[in-house]
Design goal:
The protein is mainly alpha-helical. The protein is built from 8 helices and 2 strands, in the order ααααααββαα.
């Protein structure tokens, strides 16, 4: 090669102008984004800290809510929904199977925390909604959780708290959208 010829591109170096790979496995193997990779252990650390610290159980105790995690999860799912939900919708939002939710709903019904209402769009189906007692209980639980996290970051500046909320919301939306796209992509034929 002459001194005036341009150097051939190095095939092992990613082209920064190239579009990001569409395959999640391909982008996960790209070592150039160490910032994203550094987040994974921190997410695991946060999850472990919440679990080890028994935060959901502590919030339930503070709320006077004597329910196990799955039942509390059903109530929280209904709490964050903008409407009454079918059992299948609750299961989808919780990422569990329908029979699991059915058992929890039945137990919550017996305790007077949820009720079935007619689905106005399908007379054969019913929707699940919290009763006033269930709504009050889940509001106490959510307030206990929110209070705990608010206390944990109470010494942060207002800007840092706003940035956390904004970036965590953006991260959650992007991860959710990416996972939904993966679910919609058909698996390649076995070959």
């Amino acid at each position: 090669m002459s001194p005036t010829s341009p150097a051939a591109p190095d095939p092992t170096t990613p082209d920064p102008a190239a579009p990001a790979p569409a395959d999640p496995a391909a982008s996960a193997s790209d070592p150039s984004d160490s910032t994203a990779l550094a987040v994974l252990p921190r997410l695991a650390q946060l999850s472990n800290a919440v679990t080890r610290g028994r935060l959901p159980e502590r919030a339930a105790e503070a709320a006077g809510l004597a329910l196990d995690r799955p039942a509390t999860g059903v109530l929280m799912t209904l709490h964050t929904a903008d409407r009454a939900l079918r059992v299948g919708e609750i299961a989808d939002r919780m990422q569990v199977v329908g029979p699991h939710v059915t058992r929890q709903v039945q137990a919550l019904e017996r305790r007077g925390l949820v009720r079935r209402v007619a689905d106005p769009h399908d007379r054969r189906a019913s929707l699940i909604e919290p009763t006033p007692e269930g709504a009050a209980a889940v509001n106490r639980y959510a307030s206990a959780l929110i209070g705990w996290f608010t206390d944990a970051i109470g010494h942060w500046s207002e800007r840092d708290r706003a940035d956390l909320g904004r970036l965590l919301g953006r991260f959650t939306d992007d991860v959710t959208a990416r996972l939904a796209a993966l679910e919609e992509t058909p698996d390649p034929p076995a070959g």
